[in-house]
Every structure is written in structure tokens, then in C-alpha cells.
């Protein structure tokens, strides 16, 4: 299927590795003009090399922290009128809520709720004027099924979800959709660190915990980030114009609920 995205401008945040990189890869394969943003220049350039080898198109790179006003300004200067915005940021650390300070909560909200909202605010009116826009927020399956040690993430990402639910109904008539992608256990560095924390909290070996989490998933495995990237690209496609305000769970069937 041709997603109809050739020549579209895409800004992908936290795209030096993991799910952000996979999303940028998929959009580059659809012949988008992609700008990838991440904090670490060396890792960012390695990601650009990988994308160029796979997709035949090298994304532009911006070394910036989009959780800061300065970082967002730098990203938007490199891609001032994106047709596609993929919001993504590293999740806050796991832990016990009793030990979190106000500053911990503010950092989580800045990274996983307020920064995406600021980027949406900076780009959505231009999308409306051009009558094409796709915004995908990479959140977490914890929005549907909260994880006890990820309280900072549960709270901040749920706040973003509530905001999007209202805005997405106002923009879709202008061919601008806003959706959230909720990843489960994908084979990323973030998953490795979370499983290490989970193993420590349970007093179990990491290898034992990893094997158990895989067994508990109906798919019997972790997700491949490229599967996630392909789903992101579809939500950005011309064919997805009637999908908005949705929380698309991609977790191998781990969530047991009907709704």
C-alpha cells in the first residue's frame, strides 16, 4: 500500500533509538522528508546512518532536548512547518511514589505531557491551514493498564491522553488527525531498564524476569520496534484520515480488557 506521504515533512522526536527511530525509519521508507531530534549528537548521527542505509534517504538531524523551550525552538527551526509530528520522550524513572518530590513530578509532566502539548500548539494551526496534518504521540500501554512502579509515567501520559481526546475532535474536519500509540513490551533500551528495576523490586534475577514477562505475553515475545514504526506510518497515511482521538494499543494482546 502506498501511504501517500512522499514529500511530506515529518518531525520525529527522541528518534536516535528505540520506537522513535523505528517511526522515523518507516516514514523515511514512505519517502517523507524526515527531521530526527535527540539529545546526544553521536547517537543521533548513528541513527541517521541506519535510516539512510535502510530507506535510501538520510534524515536531517537536530541535537536538542525537546523537553526544554530552547530544544523545541531548535527542532522547529529545522522543521518549521511539519505535516507530520511524532511526539516522543524518554519516560521518567520507575520507583516508589513516596520517594518522589514535586520536582520529580514536574520533570515528568514537562517531558511526557507539557512538551508534546507545546509542540502540538506550535504546529497544528499550520497543518489546519494546509489541510493536512498527522500528529502521533508515543505514550505507553500503562495509560490503559497502569504499572505500579511507573507512577510518574502513568500520571503524565494520562494527562496528555485527556488533552488529546478533546483537541482531536476539533481538528479532524480540517484533515488533521491526532492519535496516541501505546506500546507494550518492545525490545528497547527502555524496556531493559524497566525490567531490571522490576527484577530488583521482586528480588529476582533479570534473566528470570525477562523470561517470565515474555511467557506472560500472549505473543510469547517482545515486540520488534519496526512493527511499531509501521503502525505509526499508517496512522500518518492518507488512508488514516478518519482515525482520530484514538489510543492504539500495540502490545501483543497483553491487555486483557475488551475496551
- Overall geometry: globular
Average pLDDT, all residues? 95
Taking the alpha carbons of the first and last residues, their distance comes to 29 Å
Given the helix and strand composition, which structural class is it? alpha/beta
- Report the total helices: 8
* Main sheet attributes: strand count, strand direction, barrel closure: 7 strands, parallel
For the secondary structure, the number of strands is 7
| H/E topology pattern | EHEHEHEHEHEHHHE
As residue ranges, the low-confidence spans are none
Question: What is the spatial order of strands in the main beta sheet?
Answer: 3-2-1-4-5-6-7
Short summary of the structure?
This is Oxidoreductase. With 259 residues, the protein is of the alpha/beta class.
Write a structural description.
This protein is α/β, with parallel strands linked by helices. 47% of the residues lie in helices and 14% in strands. It contains eight helices and seven strands, in the order βαβαβαβαβαβαααβ. It has a seven-stranded parallel β-sheet with strand order 3-2-1-4-5-6-7, with helices on both faces. Helix 1 packs across helix 8, helix 4 runs parallel beside helix 5 and helix 6 (189-202) packs across helix 7 (206-216). The longest helix is centred in the middle third of the chain and has 29 residues, at 102-130. It is globular. It starts with 8 loop residues before the first strand and ends in a 9-residue tail after the last strand.
Amino acid at each position: 500500500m502506498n501511504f501517500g506521504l512522499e514529500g511530506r515533512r515529518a518531525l520525529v522526536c527522541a528518534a536516535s533509538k528505540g520506537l522513535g527511530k523505528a517511526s522515523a525509519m518507516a516514514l523515511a521508507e514512505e519517502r517523507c522528508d524526515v527531521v530526527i531530534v535527540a539529545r546526544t549528537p553521536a547517537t543521533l548521527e548513528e541513527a541517521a546512518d541506519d535510516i539512510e542505509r535502510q530507506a535510501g534517504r538520510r534524515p536531517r538531524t537536530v541535537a536538542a532536548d525537546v523537553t526544554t523551550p530552547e530544544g523545541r525552538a531548535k527542532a522547529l527551526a529545522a522543521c518549521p512547518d511539519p505535516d507530520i509530528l511524532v511526539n516522543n520522550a524518554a519516560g521518567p524513572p520507575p520507583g516508589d511514589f513516596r520517594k518522589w518530590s514535586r520536582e520529580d513530578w514536574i520533570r515528568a509532566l514537562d517531558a511526557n505531557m507539557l512538551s508534546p502539548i507545546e509542540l502540538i500548539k506550535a504546529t497544528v494551526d499550520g497543518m489546519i491551514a494546509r489541510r493536512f496534518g498527522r500528529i502521533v504521540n508515543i505514550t505507553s500501554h500503562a495509560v490503559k493498564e497502569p504499572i505500579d512502579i511507573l507512577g510518574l509515567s502513568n500520571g503524565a501520559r494520562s494527562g496528555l491522553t485527556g488533552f488529546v481526546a478533546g483537541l482531536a475532535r476539533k481538528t479532524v474536519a480540517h484533515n488533521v488527525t491526532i492519535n496516541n500509540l501505546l506500546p507494550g513490551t518492545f525490545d528497547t533500551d527502555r524496556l531493559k531498564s524497566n525490567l531490571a528495576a522490576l527484577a530488583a523490586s521482586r528480588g529476582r534475577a533479570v534473566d528470570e524476569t525477562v523470561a517470565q514477562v515474555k511467557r506472560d505475553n500472549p505473543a510469547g515475545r517482545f515486540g520488534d520496534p519496526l512493527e511499531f514504526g509501521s503502525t505509526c506510518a499508517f496512522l500518518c497515511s492518507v488512508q488514516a484520515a478518519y482515525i482520530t482521538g484514538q489510543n492504539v494499543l500495540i502490545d501483543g494482546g497483553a491487555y486483557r480488557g475488551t475496551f
